[in-house]
Amino acid sequence: MKLDFKKNITASVYIDNTKLIDSDESKVYGKVDEDKGELYIYVKNPKSGRSIKMVFRTYAEELQNEDI
Question: Is 5 contained in some domain?
Answer without folding.
Answer: no
